[in-house]
Design brief:
Protein name (chains A, B): Pantothenate kinase
Largest sheet of chain A: 7 strands, mixed
GO molecular function, one term (chains A, B): ATP binding
Distance between the termini of chain A: 32 Å
InterPro entries (chains A, B): ATPase_NBD, Type_II_PanK
Order of helices and strands of chain A: HEEHHHEHHEHHEHEHEEEEHHEHEHEHEH
GO biological process, one term (chains A, B): coenzyme A biosynthetic process
Oligomer: homodimer
Number of strands of chain A: 14
Organism (chains A, B): Mycena venus
Strand order of the largest sheet of chain A: 7-6-14-13-8-9-10
């Protein structure tokens, strides 16, 4: 998987959030799924360094930086073309450098590989917010064309020409492919730099996090023959979160109006069974009968375009399993809870109960399903609302509760209905546990990270409803475009900063 | 299902808790399962009244009282043979009355059916504890031979000869069978009383609770032609709980030593994946290598022989779905939470994923299973403990998390392993949500009710471990022999009390 290949694994945008109108972005937008945001591929593949990998139970997430002297020609970027010249670097050029210039500029020497040349991203001596621990720096190079770059650049001490964070994913079961990918990154880097592979390796460090950083340490280290640093998973998640939430339009959420308009009664009693094709919502307050579907304008989520500091908050990282981490206003964090009913549970159950063989197939099934054929609703038990307790008849009393009665004949239940029911069950449960912890620690903001959500409307909706339901609207579920890469971004960031060259 | 038949549905003991040695009990003990406690069947089937039914999503639970002038001849009962003579009743006799005496004693007249004759249980003018609402009375007739009877009898104003609460269960899907059963109870009662069915019906009232009390109201009312009173489900659960927890040996729990001895490390870090045949516990502190199994003496649960008032507490009622109800010290209650991941979910999933066709088969499968083949453990991700967070390698990181990787081929996973994994998943989750609510409301005692547990060791163990794990030992999971009948007992009790004869 070379970076220049038409990507298969990269299904998320680079750290530069391009405006949708940019020709650069349009070139790469895939059809249909929420994951197909514009991908900024640098015009010029520079040597890479600073590779980070987050190896979880199911997926290995890779992040690496590539430099591009020419930012993409999108309107927003042109308007805010970078400025500022670090004293000990060659000037950024707005025309593509020739090979020899590039080689000279990028010449690696171990002692300066972090500070000189084009291989390191911007280093801030002055963190963007005082809440950041001292060894975390901002990456302004990512912020070409965005509001972030403007604000951060004002504080720069040193900066480099723009570049991109690139993202790749592999199945942990195929960890060798991941290792080989990184190997090829390093080899290509040596080639472009005009140095030997041995020389290149001296300057490359892999920041590894997640459980697999420990489990596969020898594999990475012995195969790649580079330094591998193991970083704590929770720490990396939080660093990644703190960083990523500063990027405009990274964070998004369902608006209150959206949640309101799809609730069955139109009242503040929100359905936790979420929207579904068979559940016609009441006519919305504006008179329009709205239906949830993957890409209707009415259901566009709201993006956080002007991010403000997002702490304190609760991070709910949904991978194979789920970790809940509270983050204080000063950036201190603590893993306060978890649940084993996570993505791995849902995928595992659906792989046995439906013909689906991939996550996306399972989610596609769920979009067409009606959970009321397999779930036992309050109305099924009571014949009506349980009004004394405020339980609407459409609320789910028992997930999958209708299945056992029907004699256990699997053929009676469609994969679509089964998928929707279990998606709701897992999502509602995570939402409930998230809410309880947010309430316990008095946190209003609840971020959902991890590879589980994948921009899927029903999942986002269910989590949003659950938080709103339990909190009576006082708390908000927030989602991230780069949800699956928090740990790897955080690990990558930990490689940057003053005083990093300790032995 | 006539009460005198060798019972099929009655799988729990009568409200008289017989000592295990009593010949009466031994006659009826079934093999193998925890549910087979001694069943006290009255020597003499008296006319019944005061029938209560709790119709839930899956099961309809029936409770009815029968009088027996001769308590069973068990040692403990003989020693505490009843005393006290109500002023307006015939004296209790220790020899079986002849037919005509019985008929005379039991003659029904509408105005006195509650106060005279043998059809009503004991009524206390002075509740056992001041925390009871005024209209709830104790049933001392149940307490033949038990400590409860001794204590309550001292406070009696009126009492009747002993009798029993009888229990029956039906599938809600076969609600007609339940109705027919009650019909036959009433017919038999009329017969024994020597009255017409129409006359009998005037004196019979059915107290109905659960969702089905509303859904099936007409069915009960029109078929049986008796008064049917609908009672709130939550109220009945709590009344039943308050009553039942006073009976000696009703409440039981896993001792701390038991929990300690089966934890993997023998330390205070308790495994939440519970014991399993493939998980050999470390040698216990006493040097004995203990293994969990259904009936070893070492794993006998601890019974609460001297119950003290049990409020405040949290009741977790696990039926098809789960309700969590907090009960204050003064008996006031509030349903504070719930989850749709309950018994219905587990049975539904296992009915599709295994060959099992009954709950008991599913539980039997789970006893032989090893969840580590389908669950992703912390050790699978990390290769070791995640010691920084105190997460042992044997802890479950992702339930069912190994299933998706293996290509989705269902045949690779045994029904035993699948059953154990999902039993743990559902139980651990309920335990976690229960703990969080107990913590929120500062409650130490957590009672588990509902038909889910069925005295199954792995389930009890998992719930106990989960509470202990999350609470660090400060809270306790408590279980009830009559777990599934709280609502029906509560409904039944609501029929008793001064001033009940309002129109």
């Amino acid at each position: 998987m070379l970076p220049s290949a038409k990507v298969i694994h990269v299904d998320t945008r680079g750290a530069v959030i391009l405006s949708e109108e940019s020709p650069e972005a349009r070139k790469h937008i895939k059809n249909g799924t929420r994951d197909s945001r514009g991908i900024y591929l640098p015009n010029y593949i520079e040597p890479v360094s600073h590779i980070a990998v987050d190896v979880g139970g199911s997926l290995a997430k890779v992040v690496y930086f590539t430099r591009s002297p020419d930012p993409p020609s999108s309107p927003s970027i042109i308007a805010t073309r970078g400025s500022g010249t670090p004293s000990n670097l060659s000037s950024p050029s707005h025309t593509p450098p020739n090979e020899s210039e590039a080689a000279a500029a990028n010449h690696l020497s171990p002692s300066t590989s972090k500070r000189n040349g084009a291989l390191t991203p911007l280093i801030l001596g002055d963190p963007y917010t005082h809440t950041y621990p001292g060894n975390i720096s901002q990456l302004t190079g990512l912020a070409n064309g965005s509001l972030l770059r403007d604000t951060i650049l004002r504080r720069t001490v040193q900066h480099f020409p723009g570049g991109s964070l690139n993202f790749e994913r592999f199945e942990t079961d195929s960890i060798d492919e991941c290792v080989q990918f990184i190997q090829s990154l390093i080899e290509r880097s040596a080639e472009v730099n005009g140095v030997s592979i041995e020389e290149m390796r001296k300057g490359v460090k892999i920041m590894a996090t997640g459980g697999g950083a420990h489990k596969f340490y020898e594999l990475f280290h012995d195969t790649l023959c580079v330094e591998v640093r193991r970083e704590d998973e929770m720490e990396c998640l939080i660093e990644g979160l703190k960083f990523i939430t500063l990027i405009p339009d990274e964070v998004y959420y369902f608006s209150d109006e959206l949640i309101q308009s799809v609730s069955q009664s139109g009242s503040s009693a929100v359905r936790v069974d979420g929207p579904g094709p068979s559940k016609l919502p009441a006519v919305a307050p504006n008179g329009v009968l709205e239906r949830p579907s993957p890409n209707p304008p009415a259901y566009a989520v709201t993006f956080e375009s002007n991010p403000t500091p997002q702490l304190p908050c609760l991070l709910v990282n949904i991978g194979s399993g789920v970790s809940l981490i509270k983050v204080d206003e000063d950036g201190k964090f603590e893993r306060v809870s978890g649940t084993s009913l996570g993505g791995g549970t849902l995928w595992g159950l659906l792989s046995l109960l439906t013909p689906a063989t991939t996550f996306d197939e399972m989610l596609a099934f769920s979009e067409k399903g009606d959970n009321a054929t397999v779930d036992m609703l309050v109305g099924d038990i009571y014949g009506q609302d349980y009004s004394r307790l405020g339980l609407k008849s459409t609320m789910i009393a028992s997930s999958f509760g209708k299945v056992f009665k029907k004699g256990g004949d699997k053929r009676q239940f469609s994969p679509e209905d089964i998928s929707r029911s279990l998606l709701y069950a897992v999502s509602n449960n995570i939402g409930q546990i998230a809410y309880m912890n947010a309430e316990k620690y008095n946190l209003e903001r609840i971020y959902f990270g991890g590879c589980f959500i994948r921009g899927h409307a029903a999942t986002i909706g269910t989590l949003s409803y659950a938080i709103r339901f339990w909190s009576k609207g006082t708390k908000r579920a927030l989602f991230l475009r780069h949800e699956g890469f928090l740990g790897s971004i955080g690990a990558w960031l930990k490689n940057i900063g003053p005083g990093e060259d300790e032995a």
